[in-house]
Write a structure and sequence with these properties.
0% strand, nucleoside transmembrane transporter activity, mainly alpha, 74% helix
Length: 302
Amino acid sequence: MFLGQTTFFAVTITIVVAINAMCGFVQGGGTGVAGSLPKRYMGYNVNGMALGGILASAAQILSLVGNTKPADSAFFYFTTATVFLCITFVFFRLTLRSELYHYYMSKQTSMIRKRDQPKENIPKVSNWEIFRQIWVYALSIVFVFWVTLAVLPAVVVLVVSTSTEHTIWTGRLFLPVACFLLFNAADFVSRLVAFRIPIPSRFKYITLLLTMLRFVFLPLLMLCNAHPRSHLPVIFDSDVDFIVITVFFALTGGYLCTIVLTQGPKQVREEHHEAAGSQLALFLGVGLMLGSVSSYGLVVLL
């Protein structure tokens, strides 16, 4: 029995690693491709990230309401994630073969060939030169996802309802609805708003400042009714307080994420948009890593 459990655990971890590797490949490639297209396509790309969170939250709520067995829920989640990931990869490959993609790629190529120099003598722009032009947005995307992943889900999953009534809302549905569904819905709405009312690139330092100010949400969420805790007091002892903080947390994160990913690639010459988008995707991953590592320390500080 022990050997069977060990084998199952090893296979599961292997699948998780494979899924995340494929997800990183698709996300990085998709962001790079979207960066080479007009700005609205990057908006569609980031909106899809938020929509995926809404679908996941809805699936969790349906599973809880339907009293689905944990084994059945796990199988459903992994199967759904794998299917959607494969579908995304297929459509990504189709995008690379589409007329739209080839039009903008050929446009970038023609811009290079129109230079007076022979093609073989065209000076290549290094990744460092591209980074120097987008470093403000690269740092901003790190801060956005660092803050988000530092408390979500590690800290917020510890928050419990302060209501004394024992209902399905205060029990199983409190976090899935009050946190995850509302977070993803607010995140999605803020991305739509950012697409319509963006921060102009000439105010990019304001964007960076706003991403840094989001660090204030770390103590705010840690001071909510999260348990177990040994060091910090509970200041926001109301469910409404937690919901309001979570909604503003999501609104700022989604808005700034969209601003960074749509404005960042446009800071370089058109022929380097794809490279800039790929670099932003790389720094997005750095933010995710820093947030995941920081989450352990924040839980200990509770």
